[in-house]
Write the structure tokens for this entry.
Amino acid sequence: MSSLWTPGGEVPVDRRASSAPAGGGGADEAVDALEAMLASLPEEQRAEFQQALAELSPEERQQYLERLVEMADTQQRVVESPVEVMVGNHAVGLFELAALHLQQQPPNLPEAKVAIDAMTGMLGAVAGRLGEHEADLKTMLSQIQLAFVQVNGGGEPATDGPDGPAGDDA
């Protein structure tokens, strides 16, 4: 058993973990990640965190450190993914959210409109920078706008901009 020195004091850390996390870095990597996290906290929060960590059993502390490494690995995979793919995934999520609200009985038009407006704004803000799937995302936007109008009985379009419905140029 060793300890992790921080400005708020020492925290015991078991570096002899019997199982290494999926990232393969083991306890040393977890300690490094924990040190970086602690250094970024304001002093009061750092002291509270250290106290809470010290109250954990060695097994609980090791599990926490392993989860910390897993979270860091997940964040690294996100950073390594092309940003246009990540933005596209969020646009698809907004499409799905709008569709779910349109499928409710009765349809929840105000909530669907917010999701459609958010998708419209997102795609408009990054137009020309979404790579090979941009046309597909614009098609999805047009489809969900049309679905909104149909569910609404041909009433208010899903989004209105200065030039009329936002789907006109998609």
User: Anything to note?
Assistant: Residues 83-169 form one domain. The helical segments are 26-40, 43-54, 58-80, 83-103, 109-125, 134-151. The chain has two domains: 2-80, 83-169. Residues 47 and 78 are 30 Å apart (CA to CA).
